Amino acid sequence: MTFKGFGQRRFVKPIIDLLNQGISLQKIVLSIAIGATLGVIPVPGATTILCAIAAMLFRLNHPAIQLANFLVYPLQIILLIPFYRAGEFVFNAEPLSLSASQVVGMIKEDVWAAIKFLGDTTLHAVVVWCILAPILAAILYYLLLPLVKRLPFKLADPPMKSS
Fold first, then answer.
1. Is 156 among the domain residues?
2. φ and ψ of 69, to 5 deg
């Protein structure tokens, strides 16, 4: 038994089976695009719930949306301050003098105190994210669709709806 065969059987196949739950390729790609987009919202700690709600509302693939969300978590932290700065610029607000690590530390230490302190700044950042999110999701979808179509595995066709 080779490592490739072992890895294929133990890791790749279960992931493909999980993703392949009678859902179309377009829905898988949409799940990934929405998960990645929601994953960078400038509200640390809210993305898992937001992705679960989006998956239920739009009948997306839960594992795919959550996987994309978890994979972009470092990007969420990296983009926190740029979103804050963009929100300050758009709303002509007073600049916040904190780093991303300080913001995350505040949230870990005392969530409610952090919410009070960062409330307006976070709201402004979320408005900027809301403006950019549809554009980001569309770009990701149209970039990922041809890439996923070239993957060396096939997804099952979704079940036919009877009328």
1. no
2. -60, -50
Domain that holds residue 98: 21-149
Q: Does residue 154 form part of some domain?
A: no
Q: What angle do CA 104, 110, 73 make, to 5 degrees?
A: 25
Q: Which of 17-21, 43-47, 86-90, 157-161 has the highest mean pLDDT?
A: 86-90
| Position 104 in a domain | yes
- Rounded Cα distance between 21 and 156, Å, is 8
Dihedral sign of CA atoms 79, 85, 86, 87 in order = positive
Q: How many CB atoms lie within 10 A of CB 15?
A: 13
Query: Who wins on pLDDT, 114 or 21?
Result: 114
Give the number of domains in the chain. Answer: 1
How large is the average pLDDT for residues 89-96?
A: 92
Q: Residues in the chain, how many?
A: 163
What pTM was computed for the model?
0.77
